[in-house]
Amino acid sequence: MKLDGTDGDGSGDGCYSAGDCSGSDCYGGGSGAGSGGFESSSSDVNSIRFVLLSEGCMKHILSHTSPRDACRASLICKDVKFFANSDAVWERFLPSDYQEMISRSVVPVNCSSMKELYFRLCDYPILLDDGYLSFSLYKQNGKKCFMLGAKALSIAWSNSVFWRWRSSPESRFSEVAQLLAVCWLEIKGKFKPSMLSSNTAYAAYLVYNIGPLSCGLDFPAKTLVRHVDGTEDDDDDDDMAMAVVYLKPQNASTLTERIGGVPQKRADGWMEIELGKFYNDKLEGELDIRITETRELRWKSGLVVEGIDIRPTNEGGL
């Protein structure tokens, strides 16, 4: 990562709100006498006191807020904007290991400020290591998000004539997995929770699309997300409490009442289905994530798998 050591100017893309105060007045201060042209009012006096705080104190206060609050604070006045956009503030919003993540990127990540870097990681996931894992930030709070690409997953029969690996212009990864024909559908992923943000509620999602000539995907599939420490039986599905989902539901309204959810369209054009949730309280070991359909041994085709997305939920730990 290339940083020029200067503070951001607040003009980067991805900010929660835009705009600026003209002149040096806070809250549209008038032409009254006094420093900065503030009129004599209780709100203006409070504004003056706010901007007269020391630089270190201002940055300390702002760094203990949130990215959204820092963006809003930058609209108060130019003095506050300088502090709210500073590298000292925005580096606190980044994960403690952000430099390690950037060093593992397959392409250089060049940003002129910590604020620019923050929104770069929010809006444009970076590929790590061999390109089969992506890393990004949850914009609201800077929590870590990862997606396991299809190549990083264990897909039954994927090295045979039943699946085809191909490129997709819509995918962040170099290859996706296209199901040609299979009766036994089994997709598994392993991930170390120690890489995630601690004390955070997460959910895992299968990211996929369905081709026009699909078949057999309207049967219920079972999903599971669990923490394992190496002592559990990895393959005994019958002893595990698994949820039920439909990759291609026939009646969305009926399914919503019956199972509480259906696949959702993502902003990037893919579909996603929730596989399960967990709370990362500094977990060790591994996460076992899977989706299977091995009961109805009928031919299935048309499924295109991009990967498994692991990101914070809106329900807690945020």
UniProtKB/TrEMBL annotation:
Q: Where is the F-box domain?
A: 53-91
Q: Which CDD domains match?
A: F-box_AtSKIP3-like
Q: Which domain of life is it from?
A: Eukaryota
Looking up Gene3D superfamilies in the UniProt record yields:
1.20.1280.50
Q: Where are the transmembrane segments?
A: none
Listed name of the protein:
F-box domain-containing protein
